[in-house]
Amino acid sequence: MTQRVLPGLAGLMVLVLGLTGCADPSAPPAEPGAGAVTVTKCGQELSFQAPPERVVTLDQSSTETVLALGLVDRVVGTANLKTKVAPRYAADYAKVPVLNPKLLTGEQLQAANPDFVAASFKAQYTADRVGTREELAQLGLPSFVSAVACPEADEAGRTPFELLFSDYEALGRIFRVEDRAGELVEKQRAAVAEAAKTGEGVSGEPTVLWLYSTFNGTPYVAGGSGLPAEMSRLVGAKNAFDDISEDWPEVSWERIAERDPDVIVVGDLSERGAPGDSAAEKVSMMREHPVVSQLAAVRDNKIIEVPGIEMDPSVRSVDTLGLVAKGMRELGHVR
């Protein structure tokens, strides 16, 4: 495989070298043929004559998705570990080289010599990280982004879980493992349907606050455009900040107190290591806050702890959906 030089911290000079000095100008891009697979992700059409053999994943969620499809032998690097790897993926994850425990650079991506890059979020592809998707495409390196990150481009109108399932199906086609992808979709659809049964038995419409993280003591919660809003609906509840059209808006503790949620879901991001990342730290902040500590949900411990990574679209998000459904039953919200 031709070595590619990719953009990153070295900026434009590295990009120019990659475009003029290290690519093979005599090798035209392959035209899609009878055996080619073409998918569209986040507005980019990606064509593959054969399954990729050297995959780099830019975040934990995309890594675990690839592992869920049984493709550990194709992964040559990962980055950006946020929390503990799910036990069912731990053995395979241990086989994958961690190129950077945090955000990958263009130089580190180049060193892995990939032929496919995957990420859960568009924000991973920036000029000061691994390069934009357009820059990578110019170098002949296809980049995959979850459909959940750009529903306006991919299958608009579908639920976040259906968009996740479309990711599995697209990766199944790209890697020619359609059967594995189909089995994963079927299993997760069943989990979503099971949670919806709980929602049918919920009394009234309790409100749920999804507390993802804190930064300098300021809370970030689920807004109305992210996956937690859909998970709330499925379990018969309403996201407390549904009226904010952002995934993770910054709010104040006082605004949380004004919403007075019936249930609080707290994300654990212990492995990320920033102050306030663990679920225990967030719960302590709420219990120590002069106003939030007076909320019935805090006083009566109506708190459900979940892995923070599962609040974002992930192959593991159905696990948190199940935890919240179970919590709603245990907290007495189900008839």
TrEMBL record:
Residues 54-335 form the Fe/B12 periplasmic-binding domain. PROSITE patterns: FE_B12_PBP (PS50983), PROKAR_LIPOPROTEIN (PS51257). Pfam families: Peripla_BP_2 (PF01497). Residues 1-23 form the signal peptide. It comes from Saccharothrix xinjiangensis. InterPro entries: ABC_Transporter_SBP, ABC_transptr_periplasmic_BD. This is ABC transporter substrate-binding protein. Belongs to the bacterial solute-binding protein 8 family. Keywords: Signal.
